[in-house]
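W.,

You were right to be curious about this one. When I first looked at the sequence I had no strong expectations either way, so I just let the prediction run and decided to look at it fresh. Below is the sequence, 479 residues in total, followed by the output.
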Amino acid sequence: MYDAVIIGAGVVGCAVARELSRYRLKTVVLEKGEDVCCGTSKANSAIVHAGFDAEPGTWKAKMNVIGSKKMEKLSKELDFPYKRNGSLVLCFDEKDLHKLDDLKQKGIENGVEGLEIITGEKIWEMEPNLSKNVKAMLYAPTGAIICPFKLTIALAENANVNGVEFAFDIEVKDIQKTENGYEIETTKGCYETKCIVNAAGVYADVFHNMVSEEKLSITPRRGEYCLMDKKAGSFVSHTIFQLPIAMGKGVLITPTVHGNLLAGPTAENIEDKEGINTTGEGIAKLSQMAKLSAENIPLNMVITSFAGLRAAEKGGDFVLGEVFDAPGFFDAAGIQSPGLSSAPAIGEYLADSIAEKLKAEKKEDFNPRRKDIPCVAEMPKEELKALIAENPLYGNVICRCETVTEGEIVNAIRRPLGAKSLDGVKRRTRAGMGRCQSGFCAPKVMEILERELQKSPLEITKAGGVSTLLVGKIKEEFV
């Protein structure tokens, strides 16, 4: 019998797990993927939104602003990249200037600090590459950028170190109410629990509807992105938005915390909850929309494209809290933008609600801190020399594009909830995220995974499941 079962190991599920680990509760996270951060949390804009866009009084508005204010302190506690670079919202038509004023007033009402409308030559002093068609822009200095992989992994590791269990490659098939709470049927047996946290992304409506008569309906909204080489990383310094539309905040252009340039997302409602493929039409639309903000955006330097799915609930807002006709079942549903920004606040809100319901006591020995893998590419020379002297594996470069060493990869595999696949290593170390997109380093990373996990090369996968990379040994098959 668990006190709490969390369905989904994305950023929200891991944020709840980390906050629940402050209490004397028996908690487990169930994830159908092979790792944390396998869904929407790995394919988004990596933005900490300031909070001016959401309608005042909504969950989105409240959680966004609280989460944004928590993020910098959290980045220091859990050692993940965070940079407050500020954001800009562009207006291209004088007839729409009132919309910038409306956004500013929303932001003020939501508690966003420092909002300012910029006009005239100051526009291009702040961002020289912006289109000359820009008439004015809203400046939000509290906007920031982070690494969504590192945030999610940091939350999960800290939760795990503080006692939360994680179960991967396990899919929830059914949920039944019981006298003491719930019985969860999975592909690997049944779990009994007093409380459930439904943080299942685009599948959150499926699980909610198993226990409640008041149904949810979530539509997957596909967003396609283009990631450009680090040579393009200084093209803009702020996160550049366009005035919001009904389907979202539009196509943005932003630097990343790792020095790349990112453009996206598009917004297309689809039926397939696994539809993360990119399309020619989507990339063409993205290119067209991005050029409205900056005509000379270097799309010739794209190194990869990808797509993510936003969980768009028909009500338009986050669905949070205990379900009225399912006591002990807590929703974190409809978590689309600004879900990443809101995750720390959502985690605290739901964990505190569960702790109050179960009358849980806080731990005296909770450890709020976690140290990330040393990053050789950013390390001062003297510090790097000392690290290599202590462990020579940190002197053996495996990924040339991102300067990732064998020491970093071994660390990623051996640490709590360690990497088990190429993508698991990539999200923790950036090996394979560079210009050649793992063309050079993949075989070497596979060899390290084979050695550390004591597996056959035929068992090593790109992303778990059936994504094996090798089908056999040539000499055994053909000689």
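Here's what jumped out at me. The two ends are 54 Å apart (CA to CA). And, maybe more interesting for your project: The mean pLDDT is 96.

Coffee later to discuss?

I.
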